[in-house]
């Protein structure tokens, strides 16, 4: 990141200052900023923008503005990548399902759509923001020890999310705190029995290099040419998506 960029602006709510303090690459700086406000960067600043797991923080109308803002700070020809998770999981046991229903009800009361990955979908949001060469991938990840290291981490993450959401869910649904906490405990065993999983959505889109949609878009150079929806050439080593067939 260039030195002329400003220091952090802290203007938002529900934002956590969870930045690493060690092992920071030399060209990396952390800013805390409310994404509902214009980013403190000029137009056409970055080759690549990544945003992940804002599903519980943004309302549908915010999504459109946020992706437009990400597009604004991209250089022409630059790429944006969005990654989101479903709001309910799959192969749920009864208590796990109950937890996700409470979460969905709570967030719905705040105007948040937990199914942004499918309605309207990340690719659709990118299209509305004027991005091109959009490619979306959908994959399932296991939630439980049965899924090895990834499953163990995702289960820990899920449990931490539910615990962190306790006051919000109690307030949003009116349920008893003991009932909610018992459901979290029961779910820890349920996810192993039912082999629960989450569906993740990952989409990449490119900023136009031409000023007008009427002008022909140059073919992107992906190295290996593919006839349909080519995967963008990575700017740095790109993780291989794990595809599981948990159903
Ligand atoms: C589920 S966490 C994901 C964190 C990180 N992106 C990751 O993938 O590990 C959601 C994050 O969104 C942040 N958040 C919520 N609303 C926000 C907003 N309006 N502007 C910026 N960040 C926001 C929260 O502080 C929280 O750190």
UniProtKB/TrEMBL annotation:
GO terms for molecular function: methyltransferase activity. InterPro entries: Methyltransf_25, SAM-dependent_MTases_sf. It holds the Pfam family Methyltransf_25. Coiled coil: none annotated. Residues 2-78 form the Methyltransferase domain. It comes from the Eukaryota. Residues 212-247 are annotated as: Disordered. This is Methyltransferase domain-containing protein. The lineage of its organism: Eukaryota, Fungi, Fungi incertae sedis, Mucoromycota, Mortierellomycotina.
């Amino acid at each position: 990141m260039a030195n002329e960029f400003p220091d952090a602006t802290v203007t938002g709510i529900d934002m956590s200052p969870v930045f690493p303090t060690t092992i920071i690459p030399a060209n990396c700086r952390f800013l805390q900023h409310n994404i509902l406000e214009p980013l403190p960067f000029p137009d056409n600043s970055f080759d690549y923008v990544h945003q992940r797991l804002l599903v519980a923080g943004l309302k549908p109308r915010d999504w459109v503005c946020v992706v437009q803002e990400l597009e604004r700070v991209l250089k022409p020809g630059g790429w944006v990548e969005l990654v989101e998770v479903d709001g309910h999981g799959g192969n749920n046991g009864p208590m796990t399902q109950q937890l996700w229903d409470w979460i969905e009800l709570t967030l719905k009361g705040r105007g948040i759509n937990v199914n942004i990955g499918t309605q309207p979908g990340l690719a659709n949001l990118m299209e509305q923001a004027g991005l091109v060469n959009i490619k979306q991938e959908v994959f399932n990840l296991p939630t439980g020890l049965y899924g090895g290291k990834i499953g163990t981490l995702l289960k820990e993450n899920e449990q931490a999310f539910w615990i962190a959401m306790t006051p919000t869910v109690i307030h949003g649904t009116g349920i008893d705190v003991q009932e909610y906490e018992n459901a979290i405990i029961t779910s820890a065993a349920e996810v192993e029995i039912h082999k629960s999983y989450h569906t993740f959505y990952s989409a990449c889109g490119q900023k136009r290099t031409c000023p007008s949609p009427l002008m022909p878009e140059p073919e992107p150079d992906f190295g290996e040419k593919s006839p349909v929806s080519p995967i963008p050439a990575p700017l740095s080593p790109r993780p291989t998506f794990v595809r599981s067939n948990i159903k």
